[in-house]
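Hi all, posting the design record for the shared folder.

TITLE: backbone redesign
STEP: 1 of 1
STRUCTURE INPUT:
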């Protein structure tokens, strides 16, 4: 999916919300969309970074301090964006990050009782994506004269084994969220797609991991940002998973669908396809 620079002009005049927009991939997406002429609402918990970005770009942008794990905060983000720009064309549910994963650690309290693992990673990444998606669809449906795009940020961990146990679980959850929504939204001029970055070099990546990674294909935030805006430029894309490695994008869902008879068997594949049709989710892409 190469993107020509001239295509980015199609973003001019659109209004987008970017959660996690003050740093990393989110910030790169804000800068890309804004440079192409879009109005952008930057949502982030880090007020200093968000306000700095707002001051840098000045026009067609505003920062809303947002905690995506708090429903009222997400609603306030959408209300203020609609009030400021008159509506929302696209939403990037991008807020997230990796948090300490103590699933296999035997931490105990003062009484010697095993502690529950922290669910912070799931709250920020998965709850945040669910809250953002629900609010996005609500406001999209209130404005049926526009075409709308919901773009979810997944991860290679949505598909691959990873020692980040909860992170892998929640990113697989985001894949399930996208697949569940894609056929339901199809008739409402709302597309739902997911971008799956492989290794992306951001401030969150420790030096030891960069060293291990070596010369394997790695993304920079700007390369992932181009993939994130792709559904806003190719309006026919729906229900797609776009893998990004070395700043190059490849779509996975069509290949998985086309080859299902090979890995599932023709008889079972046909039965599954018929079952999906009976549940009205047979055609989703």
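Okay, here is what came back for every position:
SEQUENCE:
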């Amino acid at each position: 999916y190469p993107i020509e620079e001239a295509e980015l002009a199609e973003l001019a005049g659109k209004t987008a919300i970017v959660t996690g927009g003050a740093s990393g991939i989110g910030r790169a997406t804000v800068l890309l969309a804004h440079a192409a002429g879009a109005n952008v609402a930057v949502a982030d918990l880090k007020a200093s970074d968000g306000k700095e970005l707002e001051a840098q770009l000045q026009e067609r942008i505003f920062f809303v301090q947002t905690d995506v794990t708090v429903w009222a905060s997400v609603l306030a983000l959408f209300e203020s964006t609609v009030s400021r720009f008159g509506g929302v064309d696209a939403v990037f549910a991008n807020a997230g990050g990796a948090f300490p994963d103590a699933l296999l650690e035997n931490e105990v309290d003062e009484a010697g009782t095993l502690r529950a693992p922290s669910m912070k990673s799931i709250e920020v990444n998965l709850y945040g994506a669910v809250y953002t998606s629900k609010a996005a669809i609500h406001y999209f449906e209130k404005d049926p004269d526009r075409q709308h795009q919901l773009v979810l940020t997944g991860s290679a961990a949505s598909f691959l084994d990873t020692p980040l146990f909860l992170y892998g679980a929640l990113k697989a959850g985001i894949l399930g969220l996208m697949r569940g929504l894609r056929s339901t939204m199809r008739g409402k001029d709302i597309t739902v797609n997911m971008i799956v970055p492989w290794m992306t070099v951001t401030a969150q990546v420790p030096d030891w991991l960069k060293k291990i990674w070596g010369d394997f294909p790695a993304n920079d935030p700007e390369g992932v940002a181009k993939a994130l805006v792709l559904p806003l430029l190719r309006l026919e894309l729906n229900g797609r998973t776009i893998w990004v490695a070395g700043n190059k994008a490849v779509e996975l869902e069509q290949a998985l669908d086309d080859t299902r008879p090979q890995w599932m068997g023709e008889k079972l594949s046909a039965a599954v396809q018929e079952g999906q049709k009976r549940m009205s989710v047979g055609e989703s892409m």
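COMMENT: Residues 274 and 282 are 7 Å apart (CA to CA).
Let me know if anyone wants the other runs.
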